[in-house]
Design brief:
The complex is a heterotrimer.
Chain A (H helix, E strand, L loop, with lengths): L1 H10 L1 H19 L4 H20 L1 H6 L8 H17 L4 H29 L4 H22 L19 E3 L13 E4 L2 E4 H19 L1 H11 L1 H6 L4 H27 L1 E3 L8 H10 L9 H25 L5 H19 L6
Antiparallel strand pairs in A: 1-4, 2-3
Helix pairs in contact in A: 2-13, 3-8, 3-11, 3-12, 3-13, 5-6, 5-7, 5-11, 6-11, 8-9, 9-11, 12-13, 12-14, 13-14
Chain B lengths: L5 H6 L1 H15 L1 H17 L3 H20 L2 H5 L8 H18 L3 H28 L5 H23 L22 E3 L13 E3 L2 E3 L1 H19 L1 H11 L1 H6 L4 H27 L1 E3 L7 H11 L9 H26 L2 H36 L1
Helix pairs in contact in B: 3-14, 4-9, 4-12, 4-13, 4-14, 6-7, 6-8, 6-12, 7-8, 7-12, 9-10, 10-12, 13-14, 13-15, 14-15
Chain C lengths: L5 E10 L2 E11 L4 E5 L6 H8 L3 H4 L5 E6 L2 E2 L5 H7 L1 E4 L11 H5 L6 E2 L2 H6 L5 E2 L1 H15 L14 H14 L5 E5 L7 H16 L3 E6 L2 H7 L2 E6 L2 E7 L5 H9 L19 E10 L6 E9 L3 E5 L6 H8 L5 E7 L2 E2 L5 H6 L2 E4 L3 H5 L6 H13 L3 E5 L2 E4 L1 H14 L16 H14 L4 E5 L7 H18 L2 E5 L3 H7 L2 E6 L2 E6 L5 H8 L2 H9 L1
Parallel strand pairs in C: 3-10, 3-11, 6-9, 9-10, 15-22, 15-23, 18-21, 21-22
Antiparallel strand pairs in C: 1-2, 1-4, 4-5, 7-8, 11-12, 13-14, 13-16, 16-17, 19-20, 23-24
Classes of the chains: A mainly alpha, B mainly alpha, C alpha/beta.
């Protein structure tokens, strides 16, 4: 009995609850005779497209700045990269590549500034990060209206000032990763290209965590005073972590956008950090500790939940959007739970 | 015994005056900047002063009590309580009930006020419990708690009402009979409080009675803070450890503070909605925390200090800016949307900057203390 | 003589099988100033925690013995019980709220209230504060102490001396107060403030309040105490009246113990007398352990001990040199001036540090033993790295494992393997991991602070033997800082005593107890002056 309790304690109540919930959903899906193949395809696709955004949490947690609630800053860098690559009239892989290059460069600068900010507000990084993200998103809203872009793919077709709210990527880099090495197995689609790209980046982050700088960064995160005593510059390590997280945010939104087929401007990035935060927490991470395993498990669990909940709830309750409500409750609930656990480490 | 340099104090009074002026400016830099911003905005917007005044007066009446509800948690050291959203939800649940029973007028309003009390006490108690587990991170936790509660609120209004709890009412419910409509007209209680006594002058309307009620609450808050209870709340706000050593039940005091805040927020939201007259079932409460927090910060309050005066000044400035921005945006770049984004930017930005500055000062103070 | 107000009879207390108090008895009469003297860790604070019913006592299994207060057997289960009985405590750290006025602080949670319309309906908590009455009480208490300060001033920004008096005023304002406990009250005061304070103490005792005065400033004891109890290692080792006490006696009683000298078998004698480290005018801003002005030389190949009472700055020296707290002055290592406030520079030059704050600075508790051992050497010296990919430095897990396994064996770290988390290890083994990390740096000079704090008796000896071995076999110069004099005397070649942030003197390990005691109590330099 105590063994069971210990296992549960180790594994985390929240994860168990979510897995049980997921199992119930799957059973319901089977009972309702829903298209399991399209569900699995959906899960694979959604997990792949969201994984980098979740991965962006790893360097920030490891460097000690907590969960990156200001991820939208990185996301905006990526979006700006994409907008610029569209403005240059690029297409296909080339457009995706240029968008990434610009996005990464912008993210390095933005991440550096954001890191400087976070170093000044130690212990309140998550709160300040949230509002830094919110402000930048609403500041960029003004930019989207006023920016002098002329590309017909982005501006409103009939008058109206500024860029569209959603920009279709059909002629640029829609599905460049998804359609690369797309495997078809009995009606289940596996986007191998997408996964190759995403997992390669996961591997890169893992490798980084084994490097000298990576180890220094984790040390700065887990015990800043120890790190200082070992000659590590804690503030620069936190900046490195923030830059990495911001860069992954930029790359992450581009993966997301190519899979989704649209680029979302204006207020869309406002709340985009929260699902990523929720996913890694569901994966078993905490404000102080996060790993690649947490990213992969968390993204799959969270996305599976969302993908399966939608048709099941529609079948049970055709009116209203029950799955959306469930998403709000679960993702915000798990964040609240994680926040109440910060002090209770020892 | 003369340990302190009392002589020096009297000698340097001359210098002190100029120093005090400087201190007064730096200490109130936020409201000063926003006053200037409003002035510049007003010039660009070319708005008539009467129009601005009447709009701001209405908005003051709508929002002041919501902003007041933030004061007690600040004094108790919980920071800015973004969780007042839960109070707003309590008010909206009460309003839907009253509208469903079709009880209008001041009676309906009073009933809603009464109904919202037990609800907001329970919500406040739960919020307090959660925040006690997140000491040091109360603000972000209260914000996330607001988002979380919003999910539960939607669950209640979209599926439980009519789905599990039978509720038949064509004007409120969605055509399917399950879930509440997106907008619910509050005809019955519209202006219930305002209409008791108001003064009109051309386009200018002053809901005098509402302002009397709000002033009354201001006095209640002031009074509470001067009682034994208030002293204990302030003590907890300054130092939880010392409070605990002096025999004060810290966790209980913090819960009391959150409950008071939540109840006040519920009533604040009622006043807000009786003036607007329409309930956006799934939207009215969402920005309540954001706008109230931004208002009080613009008034010069901080995470650890907030007064009624700052709340009034801040609400005035914030809503003035709110009215001016789209007009200024229109005149400046021919796009009112820019102004709307600008005010969202201001609301988020002022919170970010103000909280950031506070955290930075705290860090500096800690460093300073170590070096002494 | 009057009836005693407080009698402690045969108080014993164990923490996890470790006896910290052994049959301590103590009697205090009304109007008496009773000094309780002892080194840090002698058991003074545990005794006071028992008297105040602090939760820490009850959560660790309570205590044995009796407390008799005012002639009656008293069971004190919480600080509130103690307060209600009339025992007041002036804390070492101030319990003052900066934003409150002096009056409000004085009356904290004991406010005088009066009814108003609302409170009659809704209850006691809503009573208004009677600020006028509170103010009068505050004035009275401050006048009793002879402090003329406006009682409505906020506490924020007051000089430390005033804060101390406000603390005391708060206690004497409690109507029923019969016994006041002062815990190191003069530690933060300037000399002049301390004099005023001692006068106030005399005034209080004249009014019939009994005072229990915990201190290690022996000169103050001589000045105000009527009776003195000296405790050491949890036992009463002396009871003196003021008349029969001398500073020398008290000093000897305080520190005297049997010395288990671990004889150095093959002493490499430092005949060269070459200085490896020269410290000049060192000042370190370490809170609670301020180093004010230290000049000290360390000879190559020796084990130098640094001793002194807590709070006098001995801990700050190593922390300052290693760059962990802001330091100024001049430190020369192997003939070169080191950059202060730069941990990396100190490490690169060949110094290493085993911190007194083992769990805070010394270890990454949730990481493996091997990572803890190699981390500093990897970051500072670039050891244990390999460039197998793209020219980036990666951790070389093979080398790390090999080195860790070797050290685990050599230092006999009891663990399940190099991958075990450090948190799971016992205190002694954790300390060995810290030492292993330091020696992985292959330093010429090793600073070790409080090497045996918080580890059990058996492990203590092992750690000390290990340090000795490093010194003897590898020729490593060691500077060991410790609060336990016995431990310093067991392995050090010379022992430097720090008092009030400065070097008081250097003694050989076999010097007289009285000399050690006097130096630690700061009486030595005065004495020396008198003689010369």
């Amino acid at each position: 009995m105590s063994q069971v309790k210990k296992f549960i304690d180790n594994f985390g109540y929240t994860r168990i609850i979510i897995i049980l919930f997921l199992i119930i959903l799957f059973i319901a899906a089977l009972a309702l005779e829903l298209q399991t193949k399209s569900l699995i395809t959906g899960i694979l696709n959604r997990a792949g497209m969201n994984m980098l955004l979740t991965l962006a949490m790893v360097p920030s947690v490891q460097s000690g700045t907590g969960l990156n609630f200001g991820l939208s800053i990185g996301i905006l860098c990526g979006v700006l990269g994409a907008v610029l690559s569209i403005a240059m009239d690029l297409t296909g892989v080339q457009a995706f590549f240029v968008a990434n290059v610009i996005g990464i460069l912008l993210a390095i600068v933005a991440g550096y500034v954001y890191g400087l900010l976070l170093n000044r507000v130690k212990s309140q990084e998550m709160l300040i990060g949230t509002y830094a993200g919110f402000s930048v998103v609403s500041g960029m809203c003004m930019f989207w209206i006023l920016a002098p872009f002329k590309s017909p793919k982005m501006i409103w077709p009939y008058g109206g000032r500024g860029l569209r709210v959603t920009v279709s990527l059909e002629d640029t880099f829609d599905k460049v990763l998804n359609n690369f090495l797309l495997g078809q197995y009995n009606g289940i689609e596996v986007p191998w290209g997408l996964y190759a790209y995403v997992l390669l980046l996961c591997l890169a982050v893992w490798l980084f965590s084994r490097s000298k700088t990576g180890i220094a960064m984790q040390t700065a995160g887990s015990n800043p005073r120890f790190a200082e005593a070992s000659g590590i510059n804690v503030d620069s390590m936190r900046i490195i972590g923030t830059i990495l997280s911001t860069v992954l945010g930029a790359m992450g939104i581009l993966v997301y956008a190519q899979s989704y087929g649209f680029l979302q401007l204006y207020t869309a990035p406002l709340y985009m950090a929260f699902p990523a935060v929720a996913a890694i927490l569901i994966g078993g991470a905490s404000v102080q500790k996060a790993s690649i395993t947490h990213v992969i498990i968390g993204t799959f669990l969270f996305q599976a939940l969302l993908v399966v909940a939608l048709p099941v709830s529609n079948a049970v309750l055709p009116e209203g959007n029950l799955s959306e409500v469930v998403r709000i409750i679960i993702s915000n609930g798990i964040i609240v739970y994680a926040l109440t656990r910060i002090g209770g480490g020892e | 015994m003369s340990l302190a340099n009392t002589d020096n104090v009297s000698k340097s009074t001359g210098k002190q005056v100029s120093w005090q002026i400087k201190k007064a400016v730096t200490g109130n830099i936020v409201p000063i900047v926003f006053t200037l911003l409003c002035l510049v905005g007003a010039v660009i917007a070319e708005a008539s002063p009467i129009f601005l005044l009447s709009s701001v007066i209405i908005r003051l009446a709508r929002n002041l009590l919501l902003v007041f509800s933030l004061i007690i948690p600040v004094v108790t050291g919980l920071g800015l309580n973004f969780g007042i959203v839960l109070g707003a939800m309590a008010a909206q649940i009460a309003l839907v009930a009253v509208t469903h029973w079709d009880i209008g007028g001041l009676g309906g309003f009073a009933l809603a006020a009464l109904l919202s009390v037990p609800l907001s006490i329970v919500f406040g108690w739960l919020t307090g419990k959660v925040l006690n587990k997140a000491k040091g991170n109360e603000m972000i936790t209260s914000m996330m708690l607001g988002f979380f509660a919003n999910g539960l609120y939607q669950l209640l209004f979209l599926f439980v009402l009519g789905g599990i709890i039978p509720m038949v009412n064509e004007t409120i419910m969605l055509p399917s009979g399950i879930g509440v409509k997106n907008t619910v007209s509050l005809k019955g209680i519209k202006y219930a409080l305002d209409d008791v006594l108001k003064i009109g002058y051309e386009t200018l309307t002053i809901p005098v009675f509402t302002f009397i009620v709000i002033a009354l609450f201001a006095f209640v808050i002031k009074f509470l803070l001067q009682t034994k209870l208030g002293q204990e709340l302030r003590c907890v706000g300054q130092d939880m450890n010392i409070a605990a050593t002096s025999g004060i039940d810290v966790d209980r005091m913090r819960i009391i503070a959150v409950i008071l805040s939540t109840v006040l927020a519920a009533w604040g939201q009622l006043i807000h909605l009786q003036n607007i007259g329409i309930l956006q079932t799934y939207g009215s409460h969402e920005q309540v925390g954001l706008f109230a927090v931004a208002s009080i910060l613009i008034g010069g309050a901080s995470v650890t200090k907030a007064t009624i005066g700052q709340a009034v000044l801040g609400t005035f400035l914030f809503h003035l800016l709110f009215i001016i921005s789209p007009m200024a945006g229109q005149n400046l770049v021919g796009e009112p949307q820019v102004g709307e984004y600008f005010r969202a930017f201001v609301a988020y930005g002022v919170i970010g900057v103000s909280l950031g500055l506070h955290a930075w000062q705290k860090q500096q103070a800690k460093k300073h203390m170590l070096e002494e | 003589m009057s009836e005693p107000i407080l009698q402690l009879l045969d108080i014993s207390k164990e923490y996890y099988g470790n006896k910290v108090l052994k049959n301590v008895s103590l009697t205090v009469h009304p109007g008496e100033v009773h000094a309780l003297v002892g080194e840090n860790g002698a058991g003074k604070s545990t005794l006071m925690n028992i008297l105040f019913g602090m939760p820490v006592i009850h959560s660790t299994g309570g205590f044995s013995g009796q407390i008799i207060f005012g002639g009656e057997q008293a069971s004190i289960n919480s600080p509130k019980d103690a307060m209600e009985k009339g025992i007041g405590m002036v804390h070492q750290e101030f319990m003052l709220l900066p934003g409150f006025t002096i009056t409000e602080n004085l009356k904290l949670n004991r406010e005088i209230t009066k009814h108003n319309v609302v409170s009659k309906l809704l209850g006691e908590k809503l009573k208004s504060l009677d600020m006028e009455a509170m103010r009068k009480d505050a004035r009275k208490a401050l006048d009793t102490l002879g402090v003329d300060i406006d009682e409505m001033l906020p506490v924020e920004g007051l000089p430390v001396g005033y804060k101390q008096f406000i603390e005391i005023a708060r206690e004497i304002d409690k109507e029923n107060v019969k016994l006041l406990v002062f815990d190191e009250p003069t530690a933060v005061l300037t000399e002049m403030e301390a004099d005023l304070f001692l006068k106030a103490v005399e005034k209080l005792s004249a009014s019939g309040i009994a005072i229990l005065f915990i201190t290690h400033r022996l000169s103050e004891v001589m000045q105000v105490a009527d009776n003195i109890t000296v405790i050491r290692d949890g036992e009463v080792v002396g009871r003196l009246t003021r008349e029969e006490a001398t500073i020398e006696d008290m000093a000897r009683m305080m520190v005297g113990r049997k010395i288990d000298r671990i004889e150095k078998a093959k002493k490499i004698h430092n005949g060269s007398q070459e200085n490896i480290l020269e410290i000049r005018n060192l000042r370190v801003d370490m809170p609670g352990e301020l180093v004010k002005n230290v000049n000290l030389d360390v000879k190559k190949g020796e084990i130098l001990g640094i001793g002194g009472l807590a709070g006098h700055g001995k801990i700050g020296i190593a922390n300052g040199i290693m760059g962990l707290y802001r330091a100024s002055g001049q430190v020369t290592f192997k003939g070169e001036k080191i950059k202060l406030n730069n941990p990396k520079d100190a490490l690169l030059r060949g110094m290493a540090f085993v911190s007194e704050d083992r769990r805070g600075i010394g270890l990454l508790l949730d990481e493996s033993i091997e990572k803890n051992i190699v981390l500093t050497a990897m970051q500072v010296q670039g050891k244990f790295l390999t460039k197998f990919f793209a020219g980036v430095n990666f951790a070389d897990s093979g080398k790390i494992r090999g080195h860790a396994t070797k050290l685990i064996e050599e230092l006999d770290i009891r663990c399940t393997g190099p991958e075990q988390l450090v948190r799971r290890l016992s205190g002694g083994n954790q300390q060995k991991v810290c030492i292993a990390r330091a020696i992985t740096l292959e330093p010429d000079l090793l600073f070790v602070s409080e090497p045996t704090r918080g580890i059990d008796v058996g492990a203590k000896k092992i750690v000390l033997d290990l340090l000795l071995k490093l010194n003897q076999e590898l020729g490593m110069t060691i500077v060991m800082t410790s609060s336990e004099l016995a431990e310093l005397r067991s392995i050090c070649d010379r022992i430097a005593i720090i008092y009030d942030g400065k070097l008081e003197g250097i003694l050989p390990p076999d010097a007289d107890d009285t000399d050690f005691g006097l130096m630690m109590a700061g009486g030595h330099s005065d004495k020396a002056k008198e003689v010369s």
